Amino acid sequence: MGRRSAARPQRQPGGTGGAASRREPTHPIAFLTLAKDIAHYHHEKWDGSGHPALLIHGDVAVRETLRRDRITVEALLGDSVRTLARQIADRRDRQTIWVSINALAMRDAAGAICMYQGAMLDITERKHAEQARDVALTKYRTLFNSFPMAITVSDETGKIIEANPTAATLLGVTQSEQRQRSIDSPAWSILQLDGTPMPPDAFPSALALKGRQGLHRAPMGVVKPDGAIAWISVTAARLPLPGYGVVVTYGDISRQV
Questions:
Q1: Domain boundaries, position 205
Q2: Same domain for 123 and 52
Q3: pTM for this entry
């Protein structure tokens, strides 16, 4: 008897599998959508010849991006898992996402990298949060350094950790010298309006550090290293951040005293 060949399944027109393999879910599934996007835009060859969007855009930059990616990956990856982060802008929906790429280089018998094993994770929301944080920090730093009012920030023990340039000019004490002091340090010579010494526990900053709610205000005189007195109006408040104590702002009122 002749050898009987096994029956082969019929291939559906226009695809590589049956209708069931192409059936879309009734409700969108987030991780499935991401997986399909990754699969659709995965390039089979490092030179980009397998990238589907290359035929759409006809842009040599896409091919160059893939070539640079290979150089970067081969330079960074050894025989351990490494994490890279990069932007993907070449999506079908024209949106840009950030992905974290965890990859492990696999080597052949000769020790050359022959393939990579890994996974990609969508970290777009985290990146947007980081970018928003960077914007906020830039705004804060610009305001802190250029604000015409003096600003001092302490940690939870009262040690000064930040002082802006205006504070250094007004008090006659450099920023680095201030960071060596606490807000109630004996190095400060503070006067009340009548010229008598102000007790450290009466400093607005000390009251705020003790946890008393609201703003604490008081006029006072600060004796500078050269003996001159800077009369200032002080406002202090608790800074509700872990590890921080108070934020103090003060301005020159010498002409009013």
A1: 147-256
A2: yes
A3: 0.57
